[in-house]
Amino acid sequence: MSRVKSKNLFHFKPCGILDEDVRMMEEGEKDAPEYAEVLQMQARAAELEQKSDYESNMKYVSILRSACAPYADLLKSCSKFQDSIDKTITSSLTVPTTHDGEFNVPVAVYTPTRLENDSKRVAFIYAHGGGGVAMSAADFEPLLQHYAVEFNVVVYNVDYRIAPETRCPNNVKDFYEVIKYVSAHTESLGLDPTKIIISGDSGGGYICLGSMVLLAQNNETDLVKLAIPGVPMVDDYIFSDTLAMTLEERNSAGMMRKVWRDLIAADFEEQKSSPLLFPGKASEEVLEKFPPTVIMECEFDQFITEATRLANRLRRAGRLLEFVVVPGAGHASSITPELKGNEVFFNCLKTVVKEYVDEENRELTVAINYEFNHGNSN
């Protein structure tokens, strides 16, 4: 398989300090009346991280899902998405699967009204975030309707099954089967078969990467034009010595170890070397068959080290188009609309789609180089 050619679209410099709005948001959370309850919940979660029985695991899942709920509320209440919501047609489809019993994967479809009668549209298949254990496709609807309009694509929002009710590799296979279905039905769906994008953020980034492994293993890479995993969960770096980790990695180590070991994996000891659990462990032979890839990251993301390692391996394998690291941004910046880093993340994503997939509709600017004054950038 030939090496991909990067356009080197972005030239960010790390700034070494969190964006001020992220710091202010974190300080504001500490001053909120309910912060005492948050501390109690964190203490309870820390206790449960030391246990692995079924009851403790389910209590832990409940805490994680409650912690994610405010992000869903934030996306649903964001006024900046309203114009895009008014300009999309929402429909749905289901994809039948048998890899974990008989299950029809629900998929919400967002079509820009201006593309309603187009027969050669770009598909953007998305796996939602939530660490693989929380949130749903519906939580991300406003954001993805915005993507549909701004990127000029038809978005397929996949409601794959989450852990621990559904465990690896069946969560990944739900998303993979949707990719296969969309690719096989491009004519009836009004899509260009050569312009299918797959993407996902955080836990959805893991789902996206796992599907890329399956595509490579099954020699189906040509089904996908571009893969864009964002702030993705990649490998088991989080199980290493926390003294060598960044602050964000160290702070999330207990949570992520439990999520991987007790919730996502069906049998951690048996699966810990599998690239379907940890996509970053894919062999060179598999990586060389990955779709052309853009990894979207944030400077202060808790998955930055593992994403960087995968980017380096993909670059050597000839499958990396861009490794984008938004300076000053944290993990939540990828989906929190009011944060400065979110605007940068969004604009980079939009540029990637236009430059690598939908070139005839791209804006006049050939390459966008964002420069930000973060003080000392050395």
Note down, in words, how this protein is organized.
The protein is 42% helix and 18% strand. It has 13 helices and eight strands. It has helices at 20-31, 35-48, 54-77, 82-86, 141-151, 170-184, 186-189, 203-217, 247-264, 268-271, 284-287, 304-317, 340-356; strands spanning 88-97, 103-112, 121-127, 154-158, 191-201, 226-230, 293-300, 320-330. Strands 1-2-4-3-5-6-7-8 form an eight-stranded mixed β-sheet, sandwiched between helices. Mean pLDDT is 94; it is low at 364-378.
Q: Which properties best describe this structure?
A:
globular
Walk me through the topology:
Blueprint: H1 20-31, H2 35-48, H3 54-77, H4 82-86, E1 88-97, E2 103-112, E3 121-127, H5 141-151, E4 154-158, H6 170-184, H7 186-189, E5 191-201, H8 203-217, E6 226-230, H9 247-264, H10 268-271, H11 284-287, E7 293-300, H12 304-317, E8 320-330, H13 340-356
Parallel strand pairs: 3-4, 3-5, 5-6, 6-7, 7-8
Antiparallel strand pairs: 1-2, 2-4
Helix pairs in contact: 6-8
